[in-house]
Amino acid sequence: MRKGIVQLVAIGVVIGVLVTLVAVLFQWLPTSATEEFDRIQDVYWFATVMSIVIFSLVAAVVVYAVWKWRVPLDDDADGPPIHGHTGLEVVWTAVPAILVIALGIVSAVVLSENGRASDRPLQVKAIGQQFAWKFEYGDYGDFESGELVLPVGREAQFTMEAVDVIHSFWVPQFGQKMDAVPGVETTILVTPTRTGEFAVICAELCGLGHATMRAKARVVTQADFDKWVKEKQA
Amino acid sequence: MTATHPDSSHAQYPPHFEPPHSSTWRLFFGPGLVRGAWMAAAGFVLGTLLVLVLRSWWSWDPVWNTEVVLVVGAMVAAPMGFLGGIGAFDYWLYYISGRPTRPEDHSGHGARGWRDYFRVNTDHKVIGIQYLVTTFVFFVIGGLMAMFFRAELAQPGLQFVDSQTFNGLVSVHATLMIFLFIIPAFAGIANFVVPLMLGAPDMAFPRLNALSFWLLPIAGIMFLASFIAPGGAFGAGWTGYAPFAEGQPLGQTFFNMGVQWAGASSILTALNFLVTIITMRAPGMTFWRMPLLVWANFTTSLLVVIATPFIAGSQFFVLFDRILHTSFFTPEGGGYVLGYQHVFWFYSHPAVYIMMLPGFGIVSEVISSMSRKPVFGYRLMALSLMGILVLGFSVWAHHMFVAGMADWLRVPMMITTLLIAIPTGIKVFSWTATLWQGRIHLTTPMLFALGFLTMFVIGGLSGIYLGSVPIDIAASDTYFIVAHIHYVLFGGSVFTIFAGVYYWFPKMTGRMYDERLGKWHFWLTFVSFNVTFFPMHYVGLRGMPRRVFDYDSAFGDLNFVISIASFVLGASFIVFAYNVITSWVRGPVAEANPWRAHSLEWQVSSPPPIFNFDEIPQVVGGPYEYGVPGARHAVMSPAREAKEVPA
To answer: Does B475 share its domain with B510?
Structure first.
């Protein structure tokens, strides 16, 4: 029996190492460009560790059982009549409960942090219309722009508006996503941490041009942002 | 007492019950597909006339409105005509009109030749096979559509189809797979197996059962017919979000109405299962002696009956907005856009369990009998189904974390969503514990059950990611979702359907499938499934949204790999089809109980007698007493002679 447990654990470790390699050798997430996405990635890794453990456990038992207890198809004996084990059943009810509640708490904390606006965030209105995005910067007069420009390090609060059908504002490197819904005002916060060029993607099927409903997003320094605003205001 | 064989009374009908007409008369005016065809046409004409007369009476302009004519004429009146024509209502109409009915007439019961499968048949075993063959036909059609748009997606940019056709293919693929394959395929397996497992001669309402089946092809044809509608097939996704769906071309109506027919089919079948399971259990078959497949279908039927009216409502509201100019979901008229999503997901989340719980039942049967061990923790397995049922109704808004719904609703919905992992985890761990120290027979159904076990864990774990609101905000509406639902619905549901079809194939057909081809089918499917869907997690997280015909060229290589793998996945079905068809025709004759399983369906011949049991079985113990010396699930002798042994 002890030999069996060692073998089972060995299989579990091998599977766990393989799955961990898959998880870390590929870069599954885009490089974060916002504080919000940094926090989301922490939750992602929490869930990943949990998943690796659970998958390895189940896969190891399946592989071990088939390897150890497979019999020829014409074998006609029965296995031992084990109907259950209350202790085990309590354990595999309680442990997952603790794990998912822990994940729930971590998620709720991150959600609340990602939703808490600072005193004066940069106000940006994102307007979705088949099949283009428009951005308005209410703090700087009434100009609008087809490209999204944000200053690095400053929190921006997006207010979404949809002209016709539902669209969804998404920049993969920002990690944040929110639908723009006709008749409903929705908001989302983004605090860019690095400069660069990104794509605003519409993530909600909105019609024939949905796949091409994209806009350019640029995160620039505060000085460049001020310069850009001046040009736009002129 | 010995139950008399109901069929034996067949010959005793008085002569005046014999059909008085010539065979030509019967062909056109007797129940059947010919009468179904002309009565469908007549229904269409009548419905169209009704619309035109009413519209001109009220002097509405224009008198001819194609959408209204199609809804009333083609999608309500014609199907009703078809159902009347094939004879689905004959018995009830005879009864209502006071004409003689023949409650003991079993001429429409059971199959004596292949033609009996093409008419209204009240035998649950025939209906089960009707369901399975029909649903597999739609599985092939839906699969071909998937391969078609995977060909389009093999490279960025548009190559083969235009944008509306692409959206149509994606939408109809999902709709067929959900409403015409997974849900009814499970209904088909359960139709065949559940009455047998209960020790019942048939379902509680055999005529309703026949009607439930014939509603299904109507829905399927409606979804497919949307491709010939002006403007193309419905292209708002299977979710058909308003207000986008309300501005779609005519094809959208085919979705709105098709869902009604498929939904009616599900609801009627579910009611039938509930009444059958509650009232038709053999003596001694207490709830705690029912096989887990029966438990699973009991739970699923509760879900169907409670939830399905919500999708019917959501689609009627969209239809009303489209043709009656109401404003349920149009903000200009005071409608609430998110209302659609709340009502839709109040069905469509439980629908995920409707598409999974019957599979849980199948896997419990297969793993237990192929490991030669009792199901580990039988009662907790049944209770966890109930736990999923209850929790399943409290999680719908997790599909709406980025939809702009009330912020305060997100954390409670996240908690309930994550809690579902507990009963699901119990089931997964109990199956693995059932394997422990078993004597494992690695047959094809067992391979699919084990494939399910591992793939479903991946789908469940990606569900944990999506249950967490912050991760969902990043991953929602991307290919990560596509990967997740295919791990749940293909690696989960479809694998269990294959397991079930292989497992009960000898019982259904009386012949054995080819084990070698079955194994080829499994491994081809298993490998190509993973190569197809696993990389989708990656492209989704990296920034590829779902439902797009064009995408960032950075994802080109991976999408090419995915497309090639999807073709292999499609081709693997050929192995299954060849195996099933040739084995059905000339496979080796199967024994009554090739798996030496204990549940009741294996205690009768393969295929079972026309009324299942020549004598009513007396159930004396649990269904999974493998390895218990002298244990029996049932004794097939008259009830009063049976001795009770503790379960």
So the answer is: yes
Same domain, B72 and B194: no
Domain identity same for B184 and B76? no
For B272-286, write each residue's pLDDT tens digit: 999 999 999 999 999
Is the previous residue joined to B291 through a cis bond, with omega within 30 degrees of 0?
no
The reply to whether B390 and B449 lie within a common domain is yes
CB distance A66–B474 less than 8 Å?
no
The partner residues of A133 in beta bridges, in order of sequence, read A128
The CA distance from A199 to B623, in Å, is 58
Residues of A whose CB is below 8 A from B450: 62, 66
- Yes or no, beta carbons of A84 and B407 under 8 Å apart: no
- One-letter amino acid at B571 equals A
By Cβ distance, the residue of B441, B477, B551 closest to A204 is B477
| CB count in 10 Å sphere of residue B250 | 17
**How many other C-beta atoms can be found within 10 angstroms of the C-beta atom of residue A69?**
17
- Residue B640 in domain: no
Element at B457 (helix H, strand E):
helix B444-467
Q: Angle at CA B586, nearest 5°, toward B584 and B588?
A: 90
Residues B355, B429 within the same domain: yes
Q: Which of B562, B586, B610 is the last residue of a domain?
A: B586
pLDDT at B9 over 50: no
Instruction: Give the pLDDT band (50/70/90) at residue B19.
Output: low
Size of interface A-B (CB pairs under 8 A): 261
Inter-CA distances, B408 with A190, B411, B412, Å: 20, 7, 8
Question: If you measure CA to CA, which chain A residue comes closest to B423?
Answer: A93
Residue B14 has pLDDT above 50, yes or no: no
Angle formed at CA B241 by CA B239 and CA B243, multiple of 5 degrees? 160
pTM as predicted: 0.94
Contacts of B499 (CB under 8 A, 6+ apart): B362, B363, B366, B445, B446, B448, B449, B452
DSSP string, B84-129: HHHTTTHHHHHHHTT----TT--TTSS-SSGGGGGS----HHHHHH
| B303 and B448 part of one domain | yes
B364 has a chain A CB within 8 A of its CB: no
Task: Break chain B down into helix, strand, coil percent, rounded to 5.
Answer: 70, 0, 30
- Describe chain A by its helix, strand, coil percentages, rounded to 5: 45, 25, 30
CATH number of the CATH domain containing B581: 1.20.210.10
The CATH number for A122-233, chosen from 3.40.50.300, 3.30.110.70, 2.60.40.420, 2.40.70.10, is 2.60.40.420
Which structural domain range is residue B260 located in? 116-586
Identify whether B49 is part of a domain.
yes
pLDDT tens figures, A61-116: 999 999 999 999 999 899 999 999 999 999 999 999 999 999 999 999 999 999 99
- Which residues 5-34 in chain A show a CB within 8 A of chain B? 26, 28-30
Inside any domain, residue B20: no
- Examine the fold and report which residue of B556, B586, B616 is the final residue of a domain before the chain moves on: B586
Q: What pLDDT score was predicted for residue B6? A: 44
Cβ neighbour number for residue B1 with a 10 Å cutoff: 8
Residues A33/A193, Cβ–Cβ less than 8 Å: yes
For B447-480, how does the pLDDT look when each residue is reduced to its tens digit (9 = 90+)?
999 999 999 999 999 999 999 999 999 999 999 9
Strands (E), chain A: 122-129, 132-136, 144-145, 148-151, 156-162, 167-170, 177-180, 186-190, 196-202, 214-220
User: Would residue B638 count as lying in a domain?
Assistant: no
| Integer-rounded Cα radius of gyration of chain A | 25
Radius of gyration of chain B (CA): 25
Asked whether residue B179 falls in the same domain as residue B321, the answer is yes
The H-assigned helical ranges of A74-129 are 86-115
Task: Indicate the number of domains in chain B.
Answer: 2
